[in-house]
Amino acid sequence: MKIATYNVNSVNARLPVLLRWLDEARPDVVCLQELKAVQENFPEQAINDAGYSAIWHGQKAWNGVAILSRGGNISERRRVLPGDPTDEHSRYIEAEVDGIVIGCLYLPNGNPAPGPKFDYKLSWMDRLITHAAELLSSGMPVVLTGDYNVIPTEQDVYKPENWINDALFRPETREAFQTLLKQGWTDAIRKLHPNDRIYTYYDFFRNAFGRDAGLRIDHFLLNPQLESRLRAAGVDRHVRGWEKTSDHAPVWMELEH
User: Fold this and answer.
1) CB-based burial of residue 245 (10 Å sphere; 0-12 exposed, 13-18 middle, 19+ buried)?
2) Annotated catalytic residue within 52, 92, 106, 202
3) pTM: predicted TM-score of the whole model, two decimal places
4) Domains annotated on the chain, with CATH
5) Total Cβ atoms within 10 A of residue 103
6) pLDDT tens for residues 11-59?
7) What does the DSSP 8-state code read for residue 221?
8) Residue 196: C-alpha distances to residues 108, 158, 161 (Å)
9) Which residue positions form the known binding site for Mg(2+)?
10) C-alpha span between 230 and 223 (Å, rounded)
11) What does the pLDDT look like over 80-111, one tens digit per residue?
């Protein structure tokens, strides 16, 4: 079973890229972030024509998350991260597909830091940690995947000294991510590629992709039931080089059935 995550950076503007990649990579399940489309403007027909069913939670101009499934039914579990009934951002959607609970998330960027946006990021991470603990106790196979906007270590960023004060790399952010991992989650990419320099995001500016000056901020976290089934994981880096593409590359993993 191949599961992928992809911050598309506008699902309609990047639809040709998304459809080309779906046809090439043929993942069984795809988690999308940053749809930048209201609920009724999600390109459901084009996704269906590509062989996928979908659930999504849209939002005007910003955010937005979706889960696609090729051939399997999607049973939606929730479309809001618990813990703050006043939070109206569409940043989380959760479903069961083929016996696996899949949480698709778009964690807040948090810049500028310090400030209200950074406070929101940390509070969102606290809510995620609480919900993740509940998912761990469920006994079901679970994956939490998406754009975490977290650079876990210096290994995960080109020139870490340039990111010291960025919300993605601040100590508070990394500590919260480590708290999450210590619950019992496995970082799939690092599990299989412990020493490799792997990036999932390249800024549109300063020829970042051409210089391989990137960040690893899109992650798969697996609970113990899925960690034992992990067989492969990687990044479709070449997709970042396509015309009119997202600033993120698709990330994927393969599980033994």
Assistant:
1) buried
2) 106
3) 0.98
4) 2-255 (3.60.10.10)
5) 24
6) 999 999 999 999 999 999 999 999 999 999 999 999 999 999 999 999 9
7) E
8) 26, 13, 19
9) 7, 34, 147, 149, 247-248
10) 11
11) 999 999 999 999 999 999 999 999 999 999 99
